[in-house]
Amino acid sequence: MGKIFRFDKDVDTDQIIASQYLLFPTIDEMKTHTFESLNGKFASKVQPGDFVVADENFGCGSSREQAASVLKALGVKAVVAKSFARIFYRNAINIGMPVIVSKELHDEVKEGDEMELHLEQGIIHANGKEYSCTKLPAKMQEILDQGGLIASLNKED
After folding, report:
1. pTM of the full structure
2. Looking at residue 150, what is its pLDDT?
3. Contact (Cβ atoms closer than 8 angstroms) between residue 136 and residue 118
4. Residue 62 pLDDT
5. What is d(CA 89, CA 105) in angstroms, rounded to the nearest whole number?
6. Which fold has domain 2-155?
């Protein structure tokens, strides 16, 4: 079980991690500024195993890999949204951050609710209800388990 941090539609990568923080030399230094313009307390409140739940078009804007990386570094277990910008989706998979589509969840939960994600079954439990979501194919789950596409490719050598 993890806590939900809820965001609306069209959250862009600059709102996830603003461009001025990309100058910091490490993701650990950047992560304390995650969602600073939308929820200034996010980085200090999020705990490993928590979830980001968003409306449509999450991760639009610039193609910065750091947007997915700071969420992973903070321990976010997955981002669940109605839809994702393609480049954010790809960057998340590359680094091993689960990005899950659920059309109903965002509209029925609020900030602070708890949820449980079952990737293999494509099911989310929240507030006593069950929601369908992306059911990951075994190969995709294997890639995520290895830390992302890049780590998976490096292990195949």
Report:
1. 0.92
2. 76
3. no
4. 86
5. 18
6. Aconitase; domain 4 (3.20.19)
